[in-house]
Amino acid sequence: MEYINNELCLGPLKKRLLPLCANYMRPIYVYDLDFISQRFNAMAKALSGVRLFYAVKANPNQQVLQHLKKIGAGADVVSLGEIKRAMESGFSAHDIVYSGVGKTRHEITEALKLGILQINVESLPELERIGAIARSLGKKAAVALRLNPDIDIKTHPYIATGLKDNKFGMELSLIPDLVACLTKYSDSLELVGFSLHLGSMMMEFSGYEEALRKLKPVFVEMQKKFPTLKRFDFGGGLGIFYDRLDLELEESLLRDYAKITKDILSDLNCELQAEPGRWLLAHCGALITEVQYIKKTSAKDFVIVDAGMNHLIRPSLYEAQHLIMPLKKTTETMKVDVVGPICESSDFFAKDITLGQVQEGDFVAIMDSGAYGYSMASQYNMQELPLEICI
Ligand SMILES: Cc1ncc(COP(=O)(O)O)c(C=O)c1O
Prior knowledge:
391 residues, Lyase, Ornithine Decarboxylase, Chain A, domain 1, TIM Barrel, 24% strand
């Protein structure tokens, strides 16, 4: 992100943002497709030989999905809605892995009819349900067991998924029951993989390394019983910096992550899969919003913008701190809270920050909003959803 001729620009090709506001009616999410290619290619290079299934939940925008498909991604989905969106965007059923703890009978039936590449199973009753539905359809379901190694990756508790008190995945002690269920449904279940996802915003990899080391011997043992076991899906979760743009440091962390993965898993006789979301998309998007009021009180000054927590919930939900930058460069600064119009005190984007001087009618960009931005948006307070524009 940098200013050229005093205008904020996005991505490696330094695309101007201000012209997008010419006919401004409501907040705009902007996604830079060239930036997405750059991130995808960097990850594909570092994790060469690993098939990348983009986590659709991060950003299911159709143009974004079409672009990712074009440059070689598969899709990781968590609902029938995401399956449909991915397929409408050009992914085939064979490009899709399907995770999620709450798959309904209808969703499983549709996934099986479509021939989804792999269903990542999150509980014993789910495995039983898939076995029974596949049997009734006369199909063989390709399943991967999502295992929960009970490991802490030191992230926000709301996005940790690999601890035993999280609802995700299955404890290793459940393996004998899983084997029994796979055997019971040997006509309708085919064990094809192991899957793992420890959580999001992983910036340090000791927990990840421990998890891979813990699962590796279990995989080897299971492969003896089930020779069809041929994939290891190590999930997503690689974090980014929200407080600065340091792509070099992020790429060096990516290389560390890739090295750990390959050092541990490359001698397994299997294909490797990953499910990245945030790392690919977050930096490639910004939320542009218009300043409505500068409100001064005896306690502090507020910049009130027309985007709210309903458009980007990460600051309210996870205390995430996104950089906020005026679209036109300023020399003066102001110390403010940046807040939205929603009737909640949790409706803020930043507190006590030093912001470039803005006034009513100016535009600011809430940076790094390409992942978990629009996809988590709502119409709370009957606000309109933002626009989305790909550049
Ligand atoms: C099963 C699964 N895979 C992949 C991801 C993507 O994670 P991230 O966006 O942190 O890479 C998530 C995120 O919640 C997930 O639940």
